[in-house]
Design a protein that fits this description.
The complex is a heterodimer of chains A (409) and B (287). Chain A has 14 helices and 15 strands. Chain A is an alpha/beta fold and 409 residues long. Chain A has two domains: 224 residues, Response regulator (Rossmann fold, 3-Layer(aba) Sandwich), CATH 3.40.50; 158 residues, Rossmann fold (3-Layer(aba) Sandwich). Chain A has a five-stranded parallel beta sheet with strand order 2-1-3-4-5, with helices on both faces. In chain A, strand 11 and strand 12 form a beta hairpin. In chain A, helix 2 packs parallel to helix 12 and helix 3 packs parallel to helix 4. Chain B has 287 residues and is mostly helical. Chain B has a single domain, classed as ABC transporter involved in vitamin B12 uptake, BtuC, CATH 1.10.3470. Chain B contains eleven helices and two strands, in the order ααααββααααααα. Chain B has a two-stranded antiparallel sheet with strand order 1-2. The chains are: A alpha/beta (409), B mainly alpha (287). At the A-B interface, strand 7, helix 7, helix 8 and helix 9 of A face helix 1, helix 4, helix 9 and helix 10 of B.
């Protein structure tokens, strides 16, 4: 193929510009680019999506680094819940756009794929949205930090609590991909450890709109608890249809293993009341969380409250910026920055004090919540009441049980 | 065995939605020769219309069942007048691209304002509760969906295949010039037909609002299946799309029972098989 003079000229121009930018970065070394990779348009867009980009921007503003001479830019991308799309976007960001840190990445399938790429490129993944505990176990890397929650938290929060309070037989309705599989596996372990037994399960494709067939199978199992190992719109549809088929009225109880405040809002308190679930953040916990939530809600286009995923994006970036400040510059060696982040104890307005373990797992307390009755709610978004606090050392995989290769010396 | 009955019934319920939606598509394709990719978005608009009627004007489910299809139908007619009518006589691809673009725009606008998790819409009081059939607990609302959509489907079939108005319509698609010569306003009839097809989509949307969340993306997944239904049934065949809609709902329900992982793909596997054996669809005639 013969190149036209014009395209050669533009190629040269592009190359020159790249060198120019690289030169500038070397000169002041305080240029950071953040990529918020999320499901921007599908079933997880409300729990992550545009809200995560906003949370990242708020973290940049609140860090105060800009006033200290840092140049920080936030870009966002849509992975469409497809690992191949996610990896393509991430590769473009890391190779061409010179992104230093990728945040959020809900959907465990995408997160595991991106985590591998990030290790290969020695960049950083601060994951908030994905659930799978594999990110800090079998598939851990020195470049990934998993901030907000994982399937172990959900399993040991909701799974153990419900089993101990009499729900000793379970049937799973599982989303058929990495997250659902991990959540079912971890919850099964927690239920069995608490003395319960698992009678069976059924795998539903992600983004199913009609769950009635699956719910009938769950109903026929006669299990006391139907564990919903899915997320987002899948969970809300399953809960709504379970009520319709008389499952909740017939003595069986639903365990929404992963439920976000946007899901509760979408269900309405009439349908959602009484559900037990585990989260690590609720906007109405204390003054600091309320202040953050108010600022967030005002800037959010659909005026949603922040989910724990949004809070995790914000808090993990604040900690990242602290590490950058401590390092003084050169934010482009991913493993080095992550090592610094692990050295420093975490302390932020939303999750309080905590730490990051050598396998990349951030530990902080988790909370067992119950959805309020409509009569108990004082107004919009007043949805949760606290049932129990799970201390940080019980909320996440204990280090001696973690299968992460980084822990083996 | 009991579980099997239950799955068959559940399949029939889903089949009702497939039938209503594919019927609208078949009407539009049969009369206008347009592959209406905006059908899913219009179905979603029907559900949102019901939601707005309830929350802005206080009108509940029953009025919405009539008003929403009319409102969305009028919206459809505006689309037809302003955009689709200029594509008459062009390749199918143009209509497909235009309606696909419209679907993306409509969904995008709704998603921008309402996010992705959806809004609650509850079952009307008259249809709450359920009947214990012995082998399953049948929610009254679901039974209503099956019966109501069956009536609407058969009514539409009767209107098009058995009445004088339907005869005009069919004649107008065969030979518009000749029908015009008899003093019938063909463009207006085509606009009304598009409105009818769109109204059927909106009606399905209202029916589905209490079952699924009212979500901007609710039409996106179902429309792909519905297109497969139309292809299997034979493009443009009214009765074919009704029967195939119900039948595929049942097939899908059975798959969810015997091999759940394949429930998303079984319809497409069937579509491939039918196209290999009988490219015009089960009830379609060769062009």
């Amino acid at each position: 193929m013969k190149m036209k003079p014009k395209s050669i000229a533009s190629l040269l121009l592009g190359t020159t510009l790249t060198f120019a930018v690289a030169g500038a970065a070397m000169a002041d070394d305080k240029v950071v680019k953040i990529g918020a990779l999320s499901d921007q348009s599908g079933l997880y867009a409300d729990l992550g999506g545009p809200g995560s980009t906003l949370a990242a921007q708020m973290a940049v503003e609140d860090s105060g680094l800009k006033a200290k001479g840092w140049t920080i830019e936030v870009i966002s991308g849509d992975h469409l819940n497809k690992p191949d799309v996610g990896v393509t976007v991430a590769r473009q960001w890391l190779d061409v756009e010179k992104v230093d840190v990728i945040v959020d990445v809900p959907n465990s399938g995408v997160a595991l794929a991106v985590s591998n790429l990030v290790k290969e490129k020695n960049s950083i993944l601060l994951d908030s949205g994905a659930g799978t505990s594999d990110l800090t176990n079998a598939q851990c890397t020195p470049n990934t930090i998993h901030w907000t929650y994982d399937t172990y938290t959900l399993a040991h929060g909701t799974g153990s609590a419900l089993t101990k309070s009499g729900g000793d037989s379970w049937f799973f309705l599982t989303a058929d991909y990495a997250f659902g599989a991990a959540l079912e596996r971890d919850t099964t372990a927690a239920v069995q450890a608490a003395g319960g037994k698992v009678l069976g399960g059924v795998k539903a494709p992600i983004s199913t709109s009609d769950f009635s067939s699956f719910l009938l199978q769950a109903q026929a199992s006669k299990a006391k608890i139907i564990g919903l190992a899915n997320a987002g719109a899948d969970t809300t549809n399953a809960i709504k249809q379970a009520a319709e088929f008389g499952i909740t009225g017939g003595g069986q109880k639903l365990a929404a293993l992963l439920l976000f405040i946007t899901d509760v809002n979408s269900l309405g308190l009439n349908t959602a009341q009484g559900l037990n679930f585990t989260e690590t953040f609720y906007w109405d916990m204390n003054d600091a969380s309320r202040a953050f939530a108010k600022r967030f809600q005002e800037r959010m286009k659909n005026h949603n409250m922040p989910t724990m995923v949004h809070a995790g994006v914000y808090a993990s970036l604040l900690h990242y910026f602290k590490a950058l400040e401590a390092l003084g510059g050169n934010p482009h060696d991913g493993a080095k920055v992550v090592a610094k982040m692990k050295d420093m104890p975490t302390d932020d307005p939303l999750f309080g004090k905590g730490s990051i373990e050598p396998n990349g797992r951030t530990v902080h307390p988790a909370y067992l919540f119950e959805v309020k009755k409509p009569s108990e709610s004082k107004g919009p978004w007043d949805y949760y009441k606290l049932v129990a606090t799970i201390p940080a050392d019980e909320a996440f995989t204990p280090l001696d049980k973690s299968t992460c290769a980084l822990l083996k010396k | 065995m009991q579980a099997l009955y239950a799955q068959l019934l559940v399949g029939l319920i889903n089949g009702s939605f497939y039938a209503l939606l594919s019927l609208g598509l078949a009407v539009i394709f049969g009369m206008l020769n347009i592959i209406n990719f905006a059908h899913g978005a219009l179905y979603m608009m029907g559900a949102f219309c019901a939601y707005f009627l309830l929350h802005l004007t206080g009108l509940g489910y029953w009025p919405a069942l009539i008003i929403a299809p009319i409102v969305v139908g009028i919206f459809g007619m505006i689309l037809e007048r302003t955009m689709l009518q200029w594509l008459a006589g062009l390749d199918h691809l143009y209509g497909l691209l235009l309606t696909f673009g419209l679907a993306l725009i409509i969904q995008g606008v709704f998603q921008n304002y309402f996010g992705s998790s959806g809004l609650p819409y509850s079952i009307p009081d008259e249809l709450k509760g359920g009947i214990n059939l012995g082998f399953m607990y049948l929610p009254i609302y679901r039974a209503w969906v099956v019966i109501f959509s069956l009536i609407v489907c058969l009514g539409t079939w009767y209107l098009i295949e058995r009445t004088r108005l339907g005869a005009y319509l069919r004649a107008a698609t065969e030979n518009p010039t000749l029908v015009r010569a008899f003093g019938i306003n063909v463009p207006r009839m085509i606009t009304l037909t598009y409105g009818l097809g769109v109204g059927l989509a909106a009606l399905a949307g209202v029916l589905s609002a209490p079952i699924n969340q009212v979500r901007p993306l609710m039409g996106e997944n179902i429309i792909i299946v519905v297109f497969a239904v139309v292809v299997i049934g034979g493009m443009g065949s009214i009765m074919g799309s009704i029967i195939t809609g119900f039948a595929l709902g049942v097939v899908e329900g059975l798959t969810k029972y015997f091999y759940p992982e394949a429930s998303n793909t079984v319809v497409f596997v069937l579509m491939v098989l039918v196209l290999l054996v009988k490219p015009t669809g089960l009830t379609g005639r060769a062009a």
